[in-house]
Write a structure and sequence with these properties.
Layout: H1 2-64, E1 69-76, E2 80-86, E3 89-96, E4 99-106, E5 111-113, E6 120-128, E7 133-136
Parallel strand pairs: 5-7
Antiparallel strand pairs: 1-6, 2-3, 3-4, 6-7
């Protein structure tokens, strides 16, 4: 009778530990999933802020006219794959937890140039020319 009681206690203990492990692993899995979504949302917001600052500065410099120029500091988030300026638009391609995303931001004025994809705070120079705004890294 004593051996049967000990084995019953052991099996009940294993069931409780197994259930607790299952709950903990489930909660961690859900946390990692939603954590990735939140990081993606933050990154998308940072990219939108970056693009809006670039385009609003380009428009201001363009409307001030030649030889206006401005240098601004912008934050470029991690995992930016490509920044392309063409057809009066700024296209940003970046890596998320679900794959590669590409957003286009359209300018009201003609823009050209290039912006580095390295993350961190970067300086960008905007120079008004006769028919466009050139965007580049300051010297």
């Amino acid at each position: 009778m004593v051996i049967r009681d000990k084995s019953q206690i052991s099996i009940e203990y294993l069931i409780i530990v197994g259930f607790a492990t299952f709950v903990i692993v489930s909660v961690l899995g859900i946390a990692f999933f939603y954590g990735g979504l939140i990081r993606d949302k933050v990154k998308t917001t940072q990219i939108n802020n970056f693009a809006n600052k670039v385009l609003s500065t380009a428009e201001s410099v363009y409307y001030y006219g030649e030889p206006s120029k401005a240098t601004v500091s912008v934050y470029i988030p991690d995992n930016i794959l490509n920044i392309d300026i063409s057809d009066n638009a700024l296209y940003i391609e970046y890596q998320t937890s679900t794959g590669i995303e590409k957003n286009g931001f359209f300018s009201k004025v003609p823009i050209s140039g290039n912006i580095t994809t390295s993350s961190g705070v970067r300086q960008i120079l905007f120079l008004a020319e006769e028919d466009k705004v050139s965007i580049s890294k300051p010297n």
